[in-house]
Model the fold of this input.
Amino acid sequence: MNERSWERLLKSIDDGLVVPVIGAQVLKNERGDVLQKLIAQRLLSFYDEPDDCPLTPSYELCEVVSRLKAKHNLQDLYADVHDAIEQLTSGEDFTIPEPVRKIAAISSFRLLVTLTPDDLLARCLRARCAANEIVYSPYLPTSEGSDLPKDWLSRQGEAQLLYLFGKSRPAPMFAIHDEDYLEYVHNIIARGSHVPLKFLEELQQRSLLLIGCSFPEWMCRFFLRLTNQGRLSEAQRKREWLIGEQALDKSLIYFLQSFSGGTEILSDISPESFIDELHRRWLARYSDQEKVSLANNESVPRGVMFFISYCRATDLPAAEKLFESLKSLGVAPTEIWFDRTAIEPGQDFHDRILEGIRSCRYFIPLISQSADNLDEKYFRREWNEAIDRGKSIHGRMFVVPIIVDQAYEPLGYQRVPREWIDNLDFGHAPIGLPDERTNFLFKKLIRAERQQSA
Done:
């Protein structure tokens, strides 16, 4: 790719018009071993089978499962593969591959697809935002089917991740061999059980980065057609980039060159190198000033769990400590609205703040004597907006006032709204560090939100 091609790709990513599709080749450890190969070797060790036959790169698991199912119960192999994945990815010495971390760190990616059954990409996404995992499998229980939420675009603090061939479980609910993949494909064609139609519709309208995807020739053709609204030869509004280590079949290359002009094969760069370059260029697009602007624009996502309101002139250190405390309880940074800027916002940012208050789950005003002594500060507008919204909320907590002074004296403040003092139980977090009672309250609120989301 030349400079102009990179620039066009990055602009499309910024506009939300590109979806990364992550395959098995991306999941390599520091020694260069692909996770799929390690899973296959672990599976052989479970059954005391010799590991002396060469395995085809990118097809190791399929080959080992095909070998073992001739002598062992196929249903048991799903649980064994699940155990192997857990053992390999949950040990203290395990490190998530850097390319996975970097692709997840690109916040412009709101829709992502994984072709592997592990949860590594989801783990990395949660380091920057909430991750809604959409698992497709024809064999899921009826109650577990899911698809892209209708309001996903308004969920600014959330990424949508599709497991196209199921997610690892100790049951035959994810693909582990070639016939599984065929059945998943057939179920999509036949519009069978749990097909994520909404997600597929979005893929049809966006360009795709197919990174490290070990597709058999037939599946590659099917996937490209599935994710286009019309014939490949007529596609004009979107593109696909194929980035992989294995050389493509000559007949597939001929097919793509003849009928899919929008598909570009990048054979001169590895998946890891491509992601490194993409991540570097994406970060470099923002100067320091633009990064502040980006942070401001993204820091008021709709529907955050907690909105921290405080006086920047007096209580920034306490707000920062409370922010870190909430993160330590498992709340993603993008689930918390916390503005660190010390300037009064302009009209556009003011509107974003008000929208954040109108859509957050809990509003947390920080209360201190220093702030109470000030009569004209922006945080009081935030408080008034929260009071107004609270009038329409019944049956649940919305405002969670927190005293950040060392002394706990709820009645000792002159400018704190009277309706809060008379009707609400104030928490206590001296210098932003919640005491035991307040910490328990936060855990309770977070647990309730997670259960509701589940």
Remarks:
- The two ends are 42 Å apart (CA to CA).
- The CA atoms of residues 319 and 393 lie 25 Å apart.
- The first strand starts at residue 18 and ends at 22.
